[in-house]
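Per your request, structure below.
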């Protein structure tokens, strides 16, 4: 079996003030797998995504992104993650490809030839 693209082990996050947003999360996502994170408000979805992306530090546990620890090898891990926040809208009915292009530009990333071709064909 291939190594997972994301491996989360024993992840906990307790915010200042004592609010525990994540309690012992174990999750493995395989390369090419489509994964949806669903739950009610306050379930910890945003906290989990923020920890995986390196925006929030966990209280305990660790996250590997394609084998790179997202804290000790944060540059390599972050290079592999593309986060397009829900609030990022430059036009209400923009295409996904144009939104990805815009988001990559915010982080100084050029479009690959494969992505450029898809954006221009839409």
């Amino acid at each position: 079996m291939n190594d997972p693209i994301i491996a989360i082990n024993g992840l906990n996050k307790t915010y200042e003030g004592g609010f525990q947003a994540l309690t012992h999360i174990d999750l493995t996502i395989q390369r090419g797998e489509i994964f949806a994170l669903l739950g009610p408000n306050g379930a910890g979805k945003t906290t989990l995504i923020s920890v995986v992306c390196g925006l929030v530090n966990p209280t305990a546990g660790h996250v590997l992104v394609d084998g790179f620890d997202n804290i000790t090898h944060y540059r390599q891990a972050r290079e592999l993650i593309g986060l397009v926040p829900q609030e990022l809208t430059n036009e209400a009915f923009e295409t996904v490809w144009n939104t990805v292009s815009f988001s990559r530009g915010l982080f100084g990333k050029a479009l690959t030839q494969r992505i450029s071709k898809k954006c221009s064909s839409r």
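The beta strands are 6-14, 20-29, 60-65, 68-69.

Regards,
D.
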